[in-house]
Design goal:
By secondary structure, the chain is of the alpha/beta class. It has 3 domains: 3-247, Glutamine Phosphoribosylpyrophosphate, subunit 1, domain 1 (4-Layer Sandwich), CATH 3.60.20.10; 250-443, Glucose-6-phosphate isomerase like protein, domain 1 (Rossmann fold, 3-Layer(aba) Sandwich); 450-600, 3-Layer(aba) Sandwich (Rossmann fold), CATH 3.40.50. The chain is 37% helix and 22% strand. The chain is built from 21 helices and 26 strands. The protein has an 8-stranded antiparallel sheet. It has a 6-stranded antiparallel sheet with strand order 5-6-7-8-12-13, covered by helices on one side. The chain has a 5-stranded parallel sheet with strand order 18-17-19-20-21, with helices on both faces. β2 (31-38) and β3 (41-48) form a beta hairpin. α5 (130-141) packs across α6, α14 (408-428) runs antiparallel to α15 and α16 (445-453) runs parallel beside α21. The longest helix has 21 residues, at 408-428. It starts with a strand and ends in an 18-residue tail after the last helix. Bound molecules: 5-amino-5-deoxy-1-O-phosphono-D-mannitol. The site of 5-amino-5-deoxy-1-O-phosphono-D-mannitol has 16 residues, from α10 and α18.
Length: 613
Amino acid sequence: MCGIVGYIGKANAASVLIGGLRRLEYRGYDSAGLALLDGDVLHVSRAVGKVANLNESARADWDAELFQRAGTGIAHTRWATHGPPTEANAHPHLDESGHIALVHNGIIENYRSLRARLEKKGHHFHSETDTEVLAHLIGDCDKGDLLQAVRDALHQVEGTYGIAVVSSHEPGRIITARRGSPIVIGVGHGESIIASDATAILAHTQRVIYLDDDDIAVVTANAVDIRDLDNLPVTREIAELGLDAAAAEKGGYAHFMLKEIHEQPDSLANAIRGRLDLQIGSSVLAGMSTSPRELADISRVIMVGCGTSLHAAMVGEYAFGDLADIHAEARQAAEFRYRNPILGNRDLVVAISQSGETADTLAAVREARQKGAFVMSLVNVVGSTIARETGRGVYLHAGPEISVASTKAFTCQVSVLLMMALKLGRGRRFSRDEGLKLAREIEAIPELVRRVIAQDDSIAEIAARYLENEHAFFIGRGPMYPVALEGALKLKEISYIHAEGYHAAELKHGPIALLQEGTPVIVVACEGPAKDKTLGNVEECRARGARILGIITESDHEAEQVMDDFIAIPAAHPLVATIPATVALQLFSYHVARLRGCEIDQPRNLAKSVTVE
Ligand code: M6R
């Protein structure tokens, strides 16, 4: 979604800001803009489309010396909510006087009433955005102290925001604040960088400060002064990012998605390393920080998430039920709090999110905490809001996931969920030997995935046979049902082929009416208790002329025979097999999208981190 970068310091601000916006491109956006402070003069440039367009238009608008000279500025990539992606709607927005510029992530919910009030006072608006209202409001409150003006304005605002504000009357500082939309401040030597996402900071410093909700910071080149909305000083620790800047580069791959698929043996090894105890046949997840007694007390596991993370939760539902004999539910995070969930202190609520910023998942976390559940997170981005609000949890250690289509985060989520289920299962019903057997299966996951990735070229050849159809169905049973859902999501989001995932048994209750000669049905039919029934469903599809691509277990000749095409994955426990099966589908979707000429890493209309409900 929208991205913010702000810079103040000794370097050329324009280059830092454009470089930062490029690093945020993966979040998804449709226009971009930049404001530079040159002494006490404010310059603004905006462009529809890519950051490259902004770079061009800013260079055309401004003389080269300004580009080199200015040491302070703010910049933004906008993902349209209020008003289409036009130059007028792009940020930064200015106040009525034109000396204050603002970039904003989030939504000002009461912008209509604020705008009406400001219009009555003579303010003129040039965009359809909620953000411009906040810029005018700050200007309206400005009596010569920008910090005070921002604070006064924020007191009147309902909704969410991460903002950066500059004023040509106070050129030595940037004001930044957050409520519900992340802001992180990089603390360099003689320079400070503000961003909505640490990826924009990585190249400059590893030392960062995360703002909490209702923090307002005055950022100068050499200091960060943080206050609350009542102007009381607050202390926030400086944290180390611990991320390698190269991890956020393509490293020779055509797309981030392909790189991230190929990284999975390593990311999975990182997610698993040190977390299996092969002596006692269990797992060691420090972030769960529960005593055996507390673990034994857990009566339900409820997992909340959205999109791909919800699919991981659905695999988790099978894992907790099958391995730990515990009632488990995967719940769509956006629905969770509106269903008034009945929760108690024996319920473990696990928030699953790659970004740790998804608004719906965060809202579910808050609801679960409010109701007294035991809440933990399973998050990839260190220091993200969900990780910090839950306080306890297990990081995925997948490394930066840049492609909008989630790949390595999903497989790491599932592997951590398997380890959690192993831990709970070992505390309840597993013998040491049973625990050990599963622990060894989990330990082998990176190698299983490596063997699927080794088939990349042959999967590309298969994908070439599935380019022409505009509809596709993905089916599976048991834990392969969420894998089928995930396969369909992957294909539709990057190739724009209409793909639906169904439980294999559901097809005949309606969707089978859509099957025609050659309609692709992608079936996940690996060895396991549900395989024979799934193959029965395949026959139903074949009888209606569907073209079948099977994800099957190596050397399963029976399954091979009923498939038009197949991708074979190594034999594994049915829950463990969800991971290599998903990787096969990721590669399939990637190659279909590539061969169709799609823009894989930033599909249309999508954002990497969905910070609005
Ligand atoms: O960051 P999160 O895992 O909370 O994001 C949730 C979804 O927006 C995300 O998984 C989305 O569905 C993926 N981009 C799909 O590939």
